Amino acid sequence: MNNGSKLRSADWFGRKDKLGFVHRSWMRTEGFSTSVFQGKPVIGICNSWSELTNCNAHLRQVAEAVKRGVWAAGGFPLEFPTISLGEPFMRPTTMMFRNLMAMDVEESIRANPIDGVVLLCGCDKTTPAQLMGAISADVPAIMVPGGPMLKGVWRDREIGSGSDVWHFWDELRAGRISEEEFCEIESCISRSAGHCMTMGTASTMTSIAEALGMTLTGCASVPAADSRRYVMAEQSGDRIVAMVREDLRPSHLLNRKAFENAITVDMAIGGSTNAIIHFLAFAGRLGMELPMGLFDDIARRTPFLANIRPSGSYLMEDFFYAGGLPALMKEIESLLHLDVVTATGKTVGENIASAKCYNSDVIRPLSNPLKPQGGTVVLYGNLCPNGAVLKTSAASEKLMQHTGRAVVFEDHDDLKARVDDPNLDVDENCVLVLKNGGPVGGPGMPEWGNLPIPAKIYKKGIEDMVRISDARMSGTSYGTVVLHMAPESALGGPLAIVQNGDMIQLDTANRQLNLLVSNDEIQRRLSIWQKPARHYDRGYGKLFQEHILQANEGCDFDFLRWAPEPKDLEGTERSKARRASHKLPLPF
């Protein structure tokens, strides 16, 4: 019904003037008659397909399935590309380009005759980038993830991309597997299109998209190679046409309750630490207050249930067969706001009403969680006054309370050069410290935070140590790793002045991380600290370093957060205010 307002695309195709003539005639060049596109919802299919993004390499076929659904529902589908972010290949890190992709998505939607948009995502940063762009453009939007790849199998052993890469690499470094065996693993660990089949950042963010209400129910965990992925895509194409007619926009769906639901789900699945940064970025685009403490509050009351690597034993294919995200949400329904409306047009409670778990070891019941509290905690202290995060679900219990001597690496090059040096002054009780891995220092906050265990320590059978940095780590990684320390060392955060031999105390129970040095000494060191040189003096890199926010603010650009904050606006009123600020002039 579109709430009595005309279609947005009518301002292009429904005009009776010269511009209308131009727009219709140019669309006719593609072989479409006016009866196909005039007066019907125009649905943009935002495709992050790329041969450089193997996780998303099948999205052309997914787009075709979406088109079937759009056509059948009486809409007009138009596929358009955006830049794509391939986690394994892009340097220095895809996080450097998340905001660029978000801008590409936002402006592509806003500048074109699009009434609603279907977002095709998969690899780690493509999901948050598309959601950020869609939130800011604020036209009806629904997301269709590409899905996780099939399980890897080596000999008689199921293996998972990411998590088992780190494990087998360490086994090779320690001489416990051969080069030939390592090559065998390389050939069979990733055997289909789709994103990592562990609960890494990709699976975490697609699960969060579903938990936020931005996908159809069950859409996140269908494997990429499963025919049901294409059925779900077709149904999403059908649904977006209805969403346009209902004028159901991101600003109507993404309220505080929706965020609390999604954070609760994130804790229950043992999601990637990267999710917190993306949550904060989403909230900034909405003008919503989302304090870091909220994540910790929700973690304390949410049990960890998803027995998926790197925090558990199984893989995403098993999670799907066990009932997927709807089954997990059914288990924790007492912790959710069931009245929240989603992209389905129904509430969360209605969406999961009939969900069932078919394997209670993969998706644990509330009565038998893997751990009694959620997978991620937020730390504070004199080393991280604005916060840091630790994925406790993938950490060693014995290191949750730990005091050790700092072994400091000034940057990633220093780490690579010295971490396996047999003369490195380190033992298993030390705390490994990496500086200059943050948004400005990295640059782009690369996934360097999971520092490798020094070779001479790993050869002793020690597989975990406390490691701290202002960097991120892959969601597929594991270990007692403190990340996202804010403010970062490149901006003069306290991490910048840590020295070899300093004692560092991790107190997870009290959510503290502290440098055991007097405040006077900390201030003395900060007073003589010198800011490192910037990495870029031109182009996108220069813009990035001048406008990037810190991890506790979502690492978005300062000029992309919506201001002023609409504290008194909700739903339709917020949407109207946003649309008024987005009105574009006519081209000629």
Which structural traits does this protein have?
alpha/beta, Glucose Oxidase, domain 1, 8-stranded mixed sheet, 4-stranded parallel sheet, globular
Number of strands: 14
Count of alpha and pi helical runs: 22
Helical content band = 25-40%
How can the largest sheet be summarized?
8 strands, mixed
Low-confidence stretches: none
Q: What is the C-alpha radius of gyration, as a whole number of Å?
A: 24 Å
- Average residue-wise pLDDT: 94
N→C terminal distance: 31 Å
CATH architecture of the domain at 379-528: 3-Layer(bba) Sandwich
Strand order of the largest sheet: 7-8-12-11-10-9-13-14
The CATH homologous superfamily name of the domain at 379-528 equals IlvD/EDD C-terminal domain-like
Can you tell me the CATH topology of the domain at 379-528? Glucose Oxidase, domain 1
Overview of the structural elements:
- The chain is α/β, with parallel strands linked by helices.
- Among the domains are: 158-187, no CATH class; 379-528, Glucose Oxidase, domain 1, CATH 3.50.30.
- The protein is built from 22 helices and 14 strands.
- The chain has helices at residues 10-13, 18-28, 34-37, 59-72, 98-111, 126-137, 163-173, 179-188, 201-211, 227-246, 250-253, 256-269, 274-286, 292-301, 316-321, 324-331, 348-352, 412-418, 455-458, 519-528, 539-547, 571-581; strands spanning 42-47, 76-81, 116-121, 141-145, 152-154, 157-159, 376-379, 388-391, 401-409, 431-434, 466-469, 481-483, 503-507, 512-515.
- The strands form three sheets. The protein has an eight-stranded mixed sheet with strand order 7-8-12-11-10-9-13-14. Strands 2-1-3-4 form a four-stranded parallel sheet, sandwiched between helices. A two-stranded antiparallel ribbon has the order 5-6.
- The longest helix is centred in the middle third of the chain and has 20 residues, at 227-246.
- The chain is globular and about 75 Å long.
- The two termini are 31 Å apart.
- The model has no long low-confidence stretch (mean pLDDT 94).
